[in-house]
Amino acid sequence: MSRVLIIGAGGVGSVVVHKCCQVPEIFSEIMLASRTREKCDAIAAQLPMAIQTARVDADQVDELVALMQSFKPDLCINVALPYQDLTIMDACLECGVNYLDTANYEPRDEAKFEYHWQWAYQERFKEAGLMALLGSGFDPGVTNVFTAWALKTQFDEIRELDIIDCNAGDHGQPFATNFNPEINIREVTAPARHWEDEQWVESPALSTSKDFDFPEGIGARKIYLMYHEELESLTRHIPGLEKARFWMTFSDNYLRHLKVLQNVGMTSIEPVDYNGQQIIPLQFLKALLPDPGSLGPLTHGRTCIGCLIKGIKDGREKEYYVYNICDHQQCYEEVGAQAVSYTTGVPAMIGAMLMLSGVWSGHGVFNMEQLDPAPFMEKLNLHGLPWKEVIS
Predict the structure, then answer these.
(1) CATH topology of domain 142-338+378-391
(2) Which residues fall within 8 angstroms of residue 72, CB to CB, at 6 or more apart?
(3) % pLDDT > 70, the chain
């Protein structure tokens, strides 16, 4: 029996609250809060159990503190914007509340994806007797757990890790992103980085690609090398990694539109003067693009996200592929969201469940791979994200 505060009423927040309501023996009291309370109320009206809703500006620590002091949650699930991670962590520390998020902090004025800002909270959470769980989404999140699971059950040592993310869905829109457009485009247009020979190797965005044959009828797709935050924590916590990379698929249509938008400056995060007012082009573009939450009924097809891992077991080389396939329309029928929101929201609920039940515990700041992967892997099969493995 626990009280949980969920901050963020976008597509992922909606999935999180729907999935929490499916486990009332753990999530007995729920509050959903965001800058726009009407969004929270609209989600609440869809749920099988009553929840509380509230308005809060997650940029303001004092508002967050007042809300937490009023509701007194055991855990705060942060599915707001990554810019707001630190203010929410500050409020949790002031109010004695455990913390969970799905994406690492990044500053508004620089597309920089690093954990050091949140890792710096280690001693403060430890001294407060609180737990902060970082990146409990799919990637990061499940991919970290997949890697820890592989090390625990399949390998004596992992040498190479390729995280491969494919969205084979189609929403029929000329150009749209499956999660927050501002965050998505900042991520995709940033320089690629991968880990090799104990150092980071940087290359231009989307400059490296290859074909990968995805399982279960999805087939061959072109995957592009990117940087993703779980590489930073995995190279820190998984010993012996010689190479670690992150790959993602993009349609030709997406890439054509993105190139044009870049060429005309619409993806820039540098302010420009327009009629005497400072605006950020990417934020203006976000306002023009379809809301990712509106894509649920339109999107058909499947996602496939997994880890291709090479290493040593009993002195012999071994390859292991563990993955999940998620159907967009099945997700929409269950919780009213497409699979990209679903694959992030379900792991957030599972991470919260394990924390609230004491299965995962500790004081300080943790990444997913630092915890026992077995109970999380079990819960994935039970709550909508079953995984499969190929051993060779």
Answers:
(1) Dihydrodipicolinate Reductase; domain 2 (3.30.360)
(2) 3
(3) 100
